[in-house]
Design a protein that fits this description.
By secondary structure, this protein is an alpha/beta fold. Helices cover 47% and strands 13% of the residues. 35% of the residues are buried.
């Protein structure tokens, strides 16, 4: 754990607060040096495993977690699952040496917005962090290829709650109205919408509804288009 964590600090508007999670100290140090050269990046903490990361996320409230997969005690998948439960709107970028198609797909289904291999260059990493911090899907060339090869004949797997959210979007409801209707927080609704956009390859609410309608993934009533 770093000795200079960013607890209870006020940062300028537009600052991207980053939590680094990797069990290799040298890797964390090198990544930190790259990121802190960017004027709008601040590394608010470092963790060497998932359990430590959860405690730091609670204290530092990062915008994005840059997370390795292969770690002792609590690996990246377990950490992602826990973070999604506690902080649904938290952005997650995987930075790992594991080039495994099944792993990429599993993390994608969990709502991870980005996946880069550690062979990526500094500019690619910086660009990925900026994209993920904006809620954009940012996968490197190899992970993106793994997603493109998956069988899409049956359509993307939307969870029951994601289908409910998408149906509410199709009926014209906004996020706050959806939250009230489904007894969710607005942050949770935004989390489900982000996953829906990723799974459908959509760029907007209307685009998601249109894609779902074309493939019969929604009820036929209350559609926007």
């Amino acid at each position: 754990m770093s000795d200079d964590q960013g607890f209870c600090r006020e940062w300028p508007p537009g600052t991207i607060r980053i939590l680094l999670v990797d069990d290799h100290t040298v890797m964390r140090a090198g990544t930190r040096r790259i990121l802190e050269d960017e004027p709008d990046f601040v590394v608010v903490g470092e963790a060497s495993d998932g359990g430590e990361a959860l405690l730091l996320a609670e204290d530092t409230l990062p915008d994005i977690v840059v997370l390795d997969v292969g770690m002792p005690n609590m690996d990246g998948i377990q950490t992602c699952r826990a973070m999604r439960t506690h902080w649904p709107a938290l952005h997650i970028l995987i930075l790992t040496g594991h080039d495994n198609d099944a792993l990429v797909r599993t993390l994608h289904r969990m709502g991870v917005e980005g996946y880069l291999l550690k062979s990526a260059g500094p500019h690619e990493l910086i660009g990925a962090i900026r994209g993920v911090a904006r809620g954009q899907q940012t996968y490197g060339e190899e992970p993106a290829s793994a997603l493109a090869q998956q069988d899409t004949q049956a359509g993307p797997h939307l969870t029951p709650k994601e289908r409910e959210v998408l149906q509410a979007v199709a009926s014209g409801k906004r996020n706050r109205e959806i939250a009230q209707q489904l007894h969710l927080s607005v942050n949770t609704v935004e989390f489900h919408l982000r996953n829906i956009f990723i799974k459908l390859g959509a760029t907007s609410r209307a685009d998601a509804v249109a894609r779902a309608r074309r493939h019969g993934w929604l009820d036929t009533q209350d559609l926007l288009c």
